[in-house]
Amino acid sequence: MSRILIKICGLSTPETMEAAVDAGADMVGLVFFPKSPRHVSLSDACRLADIARGRSQIVALSVDMDLPSLQRINELVRPDLFQFHGQETPEACAAARVMLRTRIIKAIGVREAADLDAALPYVTVSEHILFDAKPPKDSDVPGGHGVAYDWSLLKALDLPRPFMLSGGLDPANVATAIATSGARAVDVSSGVERAKGVKDSELIRAFVAAVRSAEDVKE
């Protein structure tokens, strides 16, 4: 099995950022969404990004953010990619990609098979399509709930872009999730936390190790 891309999202302390990078995470995510318990300020994000720069790809996650705010993040934090986790249109993603001269990850919420169709308009503007669980109906935060969905829905996907699997992943189930979905990239946030919004270095290391072990399993 070829190498699987690992993204650890919602990092907010130097210790856990260092743990993610040292463990071998390919991508590390910084959340710019005040309603999220994982939200970081621009000043903190700059410090965290400096830890990862040149070692892991830095991803800036935003939710329906205006372009001037995205430009400020781009100038100060200098992420490698932007992840759009709201209701951003394909046109908005394309405009941001051009104006920010960046790569895009677009998150799509999934609860049932019909939800996968929403990814199609984004395949020409996104580096990756990230399939995450739809949030509970009473939530105003689009991700990071630790909610899983039927990962087998992704098995037969035929997209011209790589997809990432997110939603309910943790060190104990990620190998099963990979085998069930056929994903070649995984994204975890709440599954490596000891409390909501509080990352755990040992869980981060365990998650990365579990994914790397899954790579050794023959298909």
Bin the strand percentage. Answer: 15-25%
What low-confidence regions span 5 or more consecutive residues with pLDDT below 50?
none
DSSP summary, beta strand count: 10
Which fold name fills CATH's third level, the topology?
TIM Barrel
Describe this structure in words.
With 219 residues, the chain is α/β, with parallel strands linked by helices. It contains 6 helices and 10 strands; from the N terminus they run βαβαβαβαβββαβββα. An 8-stranded parallel beta sheet has the order 7-6-5-4-3-2-1-8. A two-stranded antiparallel ribbon has the order 9-10. The chain is globular. The mean pLDDT is 92.
Short description:
This protein has 219 residues and is of the alpha/beta class. The protein has six helices and ten strands, in the order βαβαβαβαβββαβββα. 30% of the residues lie in helices and 21% in strands.
Outline the fold blueprint.
Blueprint: E1 5-8, H1 14-23, E2 27-32, H2 42-52, E3 57-62, H3 67-77, E4 81-84, H4 90-100, E5 103-110, E6 128-133, E7 163-165, H5 174-181, E8 185-188, E9 193-195, E10 198-199, H6 201-215
Parallel strand pairs: 1-2, 1-8, 2-3, 3-4, 4-5, 5-6, 6-7
Antiparallel strand pairs: 9-10
Looking at this protein, list some descriptive labels.
alpha/beta, TIM Barrel, 8-stranded parallel sheet, 30% helix
